[in-house]
Each structure stands twice: as C-alpha cells, then as structure tokens.
Write a structure and sequence with these properties.
mainly alpha, Four Helix Bundle (Hemerythrin (Met), subunit A), 67% helix, 0% strand, 132 residues, globular
C-alpha cells in the first residue's frame, strides 16, 4: 500500500532525477562543444530531442572521458526515471525488496539495497561469479 508520505518521497526523488537529467544534458552539450567533430556537431544540433539510448549510440565512438562519464550517469538517471514510471523505483534489482531511504537520498539512482550492494561489491572485488 502506497502512503501519502511514500508518494511524496517518490515525487521528490522524481523531481531530483528530472533536474539532474537536465543538468547532465547541459554538461554533455558543453563537453561536445570541446570535441568539435562532425559527429559531435550533429549530436549538438539535436541533443534536446534525442533519447538517452540515442545519445549513447551516437556517441559510442567518442573517446572523451568527460562525455563517457556524463553518458554513464545519464543512463543511470534515465533508468531510474523509467522505473518511476513503471512503479519499480526504489526496489532492489536483485532481491526486489525496498532500497533503504538513506541510500536513495545519497544517490537517487542506486539499484540495489544495502545487503545486495555489499554482495555485488564483494563479487566485483574478488572477480567471482555467483551461481544461483
């Protein structure tokens, strides 16, 4: 059951994500201005009308760390915004339990609860696979 408080929190997270999305598009435009290639000029001309997936595809060959960093964060924000539309935002991608509020407040794009995040980090650190 969704409470008024939960609904208000969800709306705040959504607004935060939407604001960050706009800032990331502006950051991406600034980074593309410094590259000055045919591809970057073409993307710049239509950047506001392109989806996140389109931007990632069109800029896949750009070798600019700033562009790649911005695209990575843009993808995370876009995924979280899609989750808000689907009613899946705030639930762990692994165990499907609610993600702790503190974690979402720290980073509104987190995809795992604390317990699953610790397991994921351990696996990455030790380069192991989990067999379910």
């Amino acid at each position: 059951m969704v409470t008024k408080q939960h609904s208000a929190q969800l709306e705040r997270f959504k607004k935060t994500l939407e604001s960050e999305h706009q800032l990331l598009i502006a950051d991406l435009a600034m980074a593309l201005n410094t590259i000055d290639t045919d591809n970057s000029r073409n993307v710049l001309a239509t950047i506001k009308s392109l989806s996140c997936d389109d931007l990632v595809e069109l800029l896949a060959d750009e070798e600019c760390p700033e562009v790649n960093r911005t695209l990575k964060r843009l993808r995370a924000v876009d995924a979280s915004l899609c989750q808000t539309e689907l009613g899946l935002y705030g639930f762990c991608a692994d165990c499907e339990k609610p993600i702790e509020l503190e974690m979402l407040q720290r980073d509104a794009t987190v995809q795992r609860c604390y317990a699953c995040d610790q397991i994921h980090r351990h696996v990455l650190k030790n380069n192991k696979r989990i067999l379910l």
